[in-house]
Amino acid sequence: MPRMVGRAKRLGVPEELRSSALAPRHLSLLAYLLFDGPMAVNELAGRLEVAPATVSLMVGDLDKKGILERTPDPADRRRTIVSIAEARRPAIESWLGRSAAAWRTVLAPLSDTERALFTNTLAAYEQALSDPGDATP
Fold first, then answer.
1. CB burial of residue 79 (10 Å; 0-12, 13-18, 19+)
2. Region 10-30: what's the mean pLDDT?
3. Three-state SS for 111?
4. DSSP state, 28?
5. Residue 92: beta bridge partners?
6. What is the pLDDT, as a whole number, of residue 5?
7. For residue 69, what are the CA distances in angstroms to 103, 110, 113?
8. Is 17 left (phi over 0), alpha (psi -120 to 50) or beta?
9. Do 82 and 68 touch, CB atoms closer than 8 A?
10. Which of 17, 76, 65, 66 is nearest to 41 (CA)?
11. Could you report the per-residue pLDDT of 52-109, keeping only the tens digit for each?
């Protein structure tokens, strides 16, 4: 696990995005939009497990920098759909796409049951890290 995390940290931000001062919180937001496509602010907030207001601030900042685009939902004009700006998509795909391809490669040969076991184990690991009361010395 430490090697995997170390490799992920070495994924350098593409040159054209470096001046945008992207933080780790932006990485998760961009990854969801890249892998799952455009979505509403509330849906992003749920996936990121943060308040919608927090996501709105992040999206607003990245929209001003030309990284994201906000458009009204054609089905419900009160909702805003967030997507990666087409001009920035190639840089973000080259940055984060390799990770997605690697996950697809390693998960493809697994059965549905094996994939569920793997993802549930990772989720349990993450939960154990966030709950210091469960850690053993």
1. middle
2. 76
3. coil
4. H
5. none
6. 63
7. 27, 36, 37
8. alpha
9. yes
10. 76
11. 999 999 999 999 999 999 999 888 888 889 999 999 999 888 888 887 788 889 989 9
* 92, amino acid identity: I
Token digits of residue 33: 């939009």
Q: Which two tokens stand for residue 136?
A: 């053993």
Residue with tokens 């009204």: 72
Q: Which two tokens stand for residue 114?
A: 């094996």
Q: Tell me what percent of the residues of the chain surpass a pLDDT of 90.
A: 42
In this prediction, residues 42-61 reach a mean pLDDT of 92
The pLDDT, as a whole number, for residue 136 is: 55
What's the burial of 75, exposed, middle or buried (CB within 10 Å: 0-12/13-18/19+)? exposed
Task: State the residue for tokens 């890290």.
Answer: 129
Whole-angstrom distance, CA of residue 67 vs CA of residue 133 = 39
Give strand pairing partners of 40.
Answer: 81
What are the tokens at 128? Answer: 């154990």
126 token code pair: 């993450």
Name the residue with higher pLDDT: 26 or 60: 60
